[in-house]
UniProtKB/TrEMBL annotation:
One of its GO terms (biological process) is response to amino acid. This is Transcriptional regulator, AsnC family. Keywords: DNA-binding, Transcription, Transcription regulation. SMART domains: HTH_ASNC. GO terms for cellular component: cytosol. GO terms for molecular function: sequence-specific DNA binding. It comes from the Bacteria. Residues 9-66 form the HTH asnC-type domain. It comes from Neorhizobium galegae bv. orientalis str. HAMBI 540. Transmembrane segments: none annotated.
């Protein structure tokens, strides 16, 4: 996909990662294009799935989600069917904000938010631990967020820039 991304596209993506609410005129001005080519490039990036959507970035603490944890999960079986079944169940859990299939000594890494430690304990013991196929769970609590996700590093997106 990176070979399909032009230098002008990179500038557009950088600008939209910084501010997804830019008007087309403001975006065009910021990236040095006229409005029509800017609009066409944005539409193309959306249609090809490079831009997958627009969202507000929320402060989790300000909305009452004081606990951030990562949970490494091992499942009983390493079959693709079992992994897909586990993933399908995890997708429906609101507390799980991200889930990754990983290599190493665990099968999945879950990023979980919760209002407080009591709510986390209830979720972990009453919901997550009761999912079938879980062999082992290990939780790591975040004490302080040093660098939260703030967009992808676009300098790697295209070697022609």
């Amino acid at each position: 996909m990176a070979n399909d991304v032009e230098p002008a596209d990179i500038r557009i993506l950088e600008a939209l990662q910084d501010d997804g609410r830019l008007t087309n005129q403001a975006l065009a001005d910021k990236v040095g294009l006229s409005t029509s080519p800017s609009w066409r490039r944005v539409r193309h990036l959306e249609e090809t799935g490079v831009i997958q959507g627009y969202k507000a970035v929320l402060d989790r603490k300000a909305i009452g989600l004081g606990v951030l944890a990562f949970i490494r999960v091992k499942i009983d079986s390493h079959s693709e069917e079992e992994a897909e079944a586990f993933a399908a169940e995890v997708i429906g859990l609101d507390e799980v904000v991200a889930c990754y299939s990983i290599a190493g000594d665990a099968d999945f890494l879950l990023q979980v938010v919760s209002p407080d430690l009591d709510a986390y304990a209830d979720f972990a013991m009453s919901t997550l631990r009761r999912l079938p196929r879980i062999k082992e769970m290990q939780t790591t609590f975040v004490l302080k967020e040093i660098k939260a996700f703030d967009g992808l590093p676009l300098r790697f997106a295209d070697k022609r820039t």
